[in-house]
Design a protein that fits this description.
By secondary structure, this protein is α+β, with helices and mostly antiparallel strands. 42% of the residues lie in helices and 25% in strands. The protein has helices at 3-8, 18-27, 108-117, 119-145, 148-162, 179-186, 190-202, 218-225, and strands at 29-33, 38-40, 48-54, 57-62, 68-74, 79-80, 94-97, 101-107, 165-167, 170-174, 206-209, 212-215.
Length: 229
């Protein structure tokens, strides 16, 4: 797929016409990433931002003691590190690939020049950052008010909406991340996530085989997720 078609998939560039997209494609760098690769580290100079085309990434912070806190999991079609354009111009977190994939890199200098000449770029950036702020606010609300079972149920439902196969009322999906990373995203411990999976399995709601999940009772899972709303 050509660069213009890939850029069109992003909300950040949804309001641009073909001429503007061609200008953007001219400064865009396409690159492959390998599993475990770090695209940038916390505190590094922000030379640009990214659009994830394929694979999954996590944005995290690592404490001086080596403890990791996952801030967000990035899915295909999402841009990330836009916030680094502001403030002190440094990346506020580390970006690490969870599996092989591909990203588009948009250099800061070239993009800022385009924003100066094309107001729609600046407007779309504000919209994108606003949506990111809402997403983080929703995560904080979920962590505050929802129990682990509800949060896990919501995650499974969202994952099923993103990528799954259904047959005869049964839904098959891949978690896409390790259980430890899922625990970090949901704000709990790995042992708690394992116990919650066992509980859902014992109640006949799901089946679990490694990272493969079979949802046997989607309606009950939706009822559990609704507790946090």
């Amino acid at each position: 797929m050509d660069l213009v078609s890939l850029l069109k998939k992003s909300l950040l560039f949804s309001g641009l016409n073909d001429e503007d997209l061609q200008s953007l494609a001219a400064i865009t760098v396409r690159r492959a990433v390998s599993k475990g690769e770090t695209l940038f580290s916390e505190g590094e100079e922000a030379t640009g931002f990214f659009l994830l085309i394929e694979g999954h990434l996590k944005l995290c912070r690592v404490s001086p003691e080596g403890r990791e806190k996952v801030l967000h999991f990035v899915h295909p079609g999402e841009t990330f590190a836009e916030a680094a354009f502001f403030g002190d111009g440094r990346y506020p977190a580390e970006a690490r690939a969870l599996e092989p994939g591909e990203v588009l890199f948009l250099p800061r200098q070239g993009f800022m020049e385009l924003m100066g000449s094309k107001p729609q770029f600046a407007l779309n950036l504000v919209v994108s950052l606003s949506l990111s702020l809402r997403r983080f606010a929703r995560q904080i609300e979920e962590l505050t008010f929802a129990d682990v079972t509800s949060r896990l149920a919501s995650f499974l439902i969202k994952r099923a909406e993103e990528q799954s196969t259904s047959y005869g009322g049964i839904t098959y999906l891949e978690l896409g991340i390790k259980k430890g990373e899922l625990a970090a995203q949901l704000g709990t411990a790995g042992e708690t996530i394992s116990r919650t999976f066992r509980k859902l399995k014992e109640e006949g709601i799901i089946e679990l085989d490694g990272r493969k999940v079979t949802i046997l009772q989607m309606e009950r899972l939706q009822q559990m997720a609704s507790r946090q709303q």
